[in-house]
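Journal club side-thread
Mid-discussion, someone asked how the predicted structure for our own chain would compare to the paper's figures. Pasting it here so we can look after the session.
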Amino acid sequence: MKRLTIKDVATLACVSPRTVSRVINKSINVNEATREKVQKIINATGYEVNILAKGLKQQKTNAIIVFIDEHQGGYWSIWHNEIVNKIIFEAKKKNYRTIISASTARESVYTAIDGFSLLKNGFADGAILFDSVENDYRIKYLREREIPFVIIGKDIENRDTSFVDCDNYKVGYIGAEHIINKGYKNAHFLLGEVDFLVNKTRAEGFKNAYKEHLNVSIEQNIHYGISDFKDCYNSTKKILASNKVDVLFISGDERVLGAYRAIEEQGLKIGKDIAVLGIDNIQMSEYFSPPLTTIDQPKEEFAKYSVSILCEMMNTDVEIIKRILLKPKVIERKSM
């Protein structure tokens, strides 16, 4: 069967195609009887708007791409998932659909099936980009083609980009400060890959807090490459076996599960023999045993600001550059 067109629906309803379009777009300029008649035919025929044709006609698709780094096949974390869910919600309120695409920040290799091809061929209007790194090929690609985009993270190389980020220097700083104020003497900080700007920035905040408060260097107690809970489990076992440690500071709450297991296998009590501090405040962290003390990143604000700025950029010819740093805070529970 051929695909039903808006003209076909108009013919069946004995109205103009413009009237059908108004009903579809929920215009107030249609009387209720006509609206009901057209909607009844739409429902009965299963008519769907041809998004591609509509986008070509209006020069707009009302679609945005959310790019998340592939993380060497690990893709995204629970933190990513919670923010993406909120982005979808915020975008829907503004009548935009959201497409999620894996990507790589380190190579300029894009395939015909990823989100970049959709942007290149005009099938999406803009992008939100996670997991920025130095010399990020994705940022270069979007800037060169003048495609509207917002980074969730930071861009330290370009002055003409927009981003929404948590103050990750402060994340590392207040984490160390909280540890010091609690009286712990031997902290180890476990972070993801060193390439990501977020991890470097958190490490700097952590180190500087120790220099300012205790005038000591803690460089040797920073561990990179902790990408998932399995890495965290193995690293925690090594730290417990070879180092004197009374607190673990772990970047990424879900990775903490690996540390919890390693600690318990040693017969130690979390919150008593050894403390654990996380970062992200994902929903499940409150239900760990014991509940996890963590540093909150305001996920609702990430979503609201990133979608709002992107919508501004997509709907104006004026250059818009906005850079927002959100404030982290410690959520105290029973793991410290």
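Post-session note: The CA atoms of residues 108 and 140 lie 9 Å apart.
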